[in-house]
């Protein structure tokens, strides 16, 4: 087996286990067993569990973030914007993650949610350190669309937004089955994402208490 094949097997096994069980609950022994490799292979290719987590996330972030940044910069160049347009900037880049895995969008958001649930501070630092410019453009777009929000308002509402999106994507197959059975609606993953955007835009833009 080539070095590339071994590294790929480790990444594939790790992302599934991390998404299903969380970062804290997934041991390297579980990963090596699922990937059918030895522990030395993980140490050789990644060095540590933290570095493996960053590599799993960056496989998606490296494709996702540049697309989001381009969309946000185009939006910021417009004279006016609204929150619906801000969240629209994430749709096309999110769907490009199917190039990595068929369920790439769902897996990525589950992993992102796990980073917060498991209190992986180093992962948030990694994202800020490598993609801080994108996050800054996102914040600028939110403030342009909803200038009445305080910094605290923005923090809490984006936290709730992430929770909503992660839950929706984690249960995407069940939701699509319900839509098909109860409402005769055929919805793909992109359609599901677009259904949640008006809810997110209204929630983030709600008048502060």
Rg, Å, rounded: 18 Å
Main sheet specs: none
Let me know the number of strands.
0
- What sequence of helices (H) and strands (E) makes up the elements? HHHHHHHHHHH
Q: Which class do the helix and strand fractions yield?
A: mainly alpha
Q: Give the averaged pLDDT, no decimals.
A: 89
Shape: globular
Beta-strand proportion: under 5%
- Span between termini: 60 Å
Total number of helices: 11
> What is the share of helical residues?
over 70%
Q: Give the uncertain stretches in residue-range form.
A: none
Word description of this protein:
This protein is an all-alpha fold and 209 residues long. The chain has helices at 3-21, 28-35, 39-45, 49-76, 83-88, 91-95, 104-117, 121-145, 151-170, 172-183, 189-204. It is globular.
Feature tags:
single chain; 209 residues; 11 helices; globular
Give a nutshell description of this structure.
The chain is mainly α. 77% of the residues lie in helices and 0% in strands.
Please outline the helices and strands.
Blueprint: H1 3-21, H2 28-35, H3 39-45, H4 49-76, H5 83-88, H6 91-95, H7 104-117, H8 121-145, H9 151-170, H10 172-183, H11 189-204
């Amino acid at each position: 087996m080539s070095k590339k094949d071994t590294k790929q097997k480790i990444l594939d096994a790790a992302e599934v286990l991390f998404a299903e069980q969380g970062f804290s609950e997934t041991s390297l022994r579980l990963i090596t067993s699922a990937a059918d490799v030895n522990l030395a292979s993980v140490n050789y290719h990644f060095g540590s569990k933290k570095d493996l987590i960053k590599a799993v996330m960056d496989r998606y972030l490296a494709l996702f973030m540049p697309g989001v940044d381009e969309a946000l910069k185009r939006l910021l160049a417009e004279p006016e914007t609204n929150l619906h347009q801000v969240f629209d900037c994430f749709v096309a880049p999110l769907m490009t993650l199917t190039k990595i895995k068929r369920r790439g969008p769902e897996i990525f958001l589950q992993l992102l949610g796990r980073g917060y649930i498991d209190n992986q501070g180093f992962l948030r630092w990694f994202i800020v350190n490598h993609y801080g410019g994108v996050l800054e453009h996102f914040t600028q777009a939110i403030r342009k669309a909803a200038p009445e929000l305080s910094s605290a308002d923005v923090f809490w509402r984006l936290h709730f937004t992430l929770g909503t999106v992660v839950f929706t994507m984690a249960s995407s197959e069940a939701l699509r089955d319900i839509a098909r059975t109860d409402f005769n609606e055929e919805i793909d993953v992109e359609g599901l994402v677009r259904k949640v955007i008006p809810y997110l835009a209204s929630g983030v833009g709600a008048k502060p208490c």
